[in-house]
Amino acid sequence: xxxxxxxxxxxxxxxxxKHDDSVIIETIAEKHFERARxxxxxFFGSGKGCCYGMCPFSWCPMTKEEFESIYRKDPDRCSTYxxxxxxxxxxxxxxxxxxxxxxxxRFDENLFHKPKNDELYVDHIAVTTDARGMGVGTKLLEWAExxxxxxxxxxxxxxxxxxxxxxxxxDRFGYVDVSTSTCLPGCILGxxxxxxxxxxxxxxxx
Length: 206
Known about the structure:
Low-confidence stretches: 1-20
Number of helices: 7
Order of helices and strands: EEHHEHEEHEHEHEHE
Shape: globular
CATH superfamily: Gcn5-related N-acetyltransferase (GNAT)
Distance between the termini: 33 Å
CATH class: Alpha Beta
Strand order of the largest sheet: 1-2-4-5-6-7-9-8
C-alpha cells in the first residue's frame, strides 16, 4: 500500500512538568490497521449511538473489512490519517483522521461533512484512555495543520458535539465557530457529553 514518504516527526509529551515517552506522529501503514481500528471502535463506543443514542455504536463495532476498504480503495486516504506512536514500545496511542475534497469518502463520512478541495476536514481525534491528558491530541492537531499546508489547503475544519471538553483545545488552536446543528448530529451520535447537537469550527491558514 502506498503511503506518504515524509519522515515521521518526533514530539515530546510533557505531563505535570515531567517529560514522558516521546511520541512519533506518522501516517498510517497497513501494519497499523488493526490497532487503529481498535482505537476508533473504543472512541465511537464511548457513549455515542445512532437514533439519538438509542442504538449504541458499541453494539456494532467497525469490522476489519469496513475499516480497511476505504484505504485500499483510495490509498491517498492513508496520507491524511495520522498516528501517535509511543517510541518506548511502538504502541499507537492516538489517531487523527482527515479528509480533503477529491478523496474517496464513505457515505457515513459525507453525512457529517463533505469537504471542498481547499479544505482539510478533521473527522475525529481519538486518544487511548491511558494516554489522555498528556498532550497527544495537541500534537495530532499540530500534525494536521502541517498536513493541510503541505496539501495546499487554505483552511481546516472540524465538528465538535456540544459539551465536549475538547472544544477548549480547538478554541486555543484558533478554530472559530461557524455554524451549529442539532438534528443530524443528535440522530447520528446521540448526546455523548449530555447535550444534543454540534458546532462546526474552522481555522483559516495564512
